[in-house]
Please model this.
Amino acid sequence: MYRAFFITFGCKVNHYETECMKSLFRGSGWEISPTPDSADAVIINSCTVTSSGDSRVLAALRKTRSALPDAVIALTGCYPQANKAEAEKLTEADIIIGTKDRRRVPELVMQCLNDRKRLMLVGEYSPDDIFEPLKCSRFDDNTRAFVKIQDGCNMFCSYCIIPFARGRCRSKSLVSLRDEVREIAASGKKEIVLTGINLAFYDDCGCDLADAAAICAEEGIKRVRLGSLEPERMTDSLIERLAAVPGLCPQFHLSLQSGCSKTLKAMNRRYSAEDYLSVTEKMRQIFPDCSITTDVMVGFPGETEVDHRESVSFVEKIGFAKVHVFRYSRRHGTAADLMSPQITEGIKSLRWHEMTEAAGRCREKYLRSLVGKTVPVLFERENSLEYHHGYAPDYTLIKISRKNSEKSLRNMIFCVTIEESLADCCLGSISRGMETSAISPVN
Model:
């Protein structure tokens, strides 16, 4: 039996697509190896969002070729799709295929094993491309399942290479989604996370994100969580309809990028800071206990110190539960690459530290606000001798002492009373006053 090993970089969509490719390999008679040792093929699923991401992909490619000189190496994903000319020069890879036609990867690997001929198959996107019908039949070692329902982006933010790596927006049909969700529910998973490159642009035959979330609840999934969302698509109507979905987790990763309206305009984002504030206010009105998380960029070309301060103040004003802070990364082929002045790496670093400190204050305040609350926690596999780890609906990491229960709580939901907040999680104990839902798993 042939053995395949996978290396995945980047977002949840990439990880979902890797799981789909694993399913395809299993269906072709392959064994999925947990280590690269003795692997007949290595599939590297790449990311190209940042230049440092590119460097990590290329380093992994070189390291893999050095360690496994006889294995077939397939490089797939966003890097070769967005950087076709550079990818063609990567002689360490036997197969180079972008973000299209991943269903063919097992066939191509087998072909290369037989004839050892190098394959360069990066297809071009067109406006009439349809959603690639990948499906994952198995999620190793996870209590939740990720399901990609949307791909591509039409927005062309001035800093972003992703429209060139993923093509235009396209969506999974509700029929296909229902079939996949039924299989996931039958496997015993309790939570589904809906993901996409631009998830809020999910639109299949007049349906929207609320319809997709409702499908998951209808098929017996206890929790439905949404991936990253674009604020301009979060209308009052959509937010209200999402609130009607049973089991929808009140955690919204609402992409910000900057809290300065001037910078947002230069980024070609389709909203202002004031628009963003209005969306968060509506979300908190409809979901009073929701957590709002986000991404914020520092050091965008032309960003002044005043702009940066405005962005920091806005982050603190919103009071995010968590913020991913990152430095602007110059990407060839984007509009921002030609903008001036470009911000020096030293200033980017200073601004990153300042924004990270503000984000930390927000995080600390949010976690403190949870103390005393009782929340249902979906427990993960044990990765500590001291604590059971799990997640509340707002995606706060909750730990309870293993003294509460020596047996595994994995893939069970218990009500937990939060007793203490730490830097990035909360401590609690199973609520003894709620016998039916706390001592027994919530079914």
